[in-house]
UniProtKB/TrEMBL annotation:
The keyword Magnesium applies. GO terms for cellular component: membrane. The lineage of its organism: Bacteria, Pseudomonadati, Bacteroidota, Flavobacteriia, Flavobacteriales. It comes from Bergeyella porcorum. It comes from the Bacteria. A divalent metal cation binds at E24, E72. The chain crosses the membrane at residues 27-46, 52-71, 92-113. This is Diacylglycerol kinase (ATP). Mn(2+), Zn(2+), Cd(2+) and Co(2+) support activity to lesser extents.
Amino acid sequence: MKKPPFYKSLQYAIKGILSIIRTERNFQYHLLGLLLNLFLIVVLQLTSTDTALIILACFTVLVTEMLNTAIEKICDFIEPNFNPKIGFIKDLAAGAVLLATIGAIAVGVLVYWRYLY
């Protein structure tokens, strides 16, 4: 199978990002969190290091949410009916998002604390 040219691969990736933005509520919430953080970065005039930490934490959550969604879609395709083993796999993927979110909140508290108090 011939690999598509780079611009086509980029188009497919953008299509995937736009699709998850349109269809997945949790991703929309996480994206809203990123936008709120970008606003706070500008308003509070964070240092470049603090900005990098916040952006990295936000994108970690977005990436894990995308991977979680991909795992859920694969599981639903493989086994459309309820299956406890598939449920366990989905729970693991959701747990990864939760851990990433807890980590991002911890980073946010540690970074923003200095600017707010």
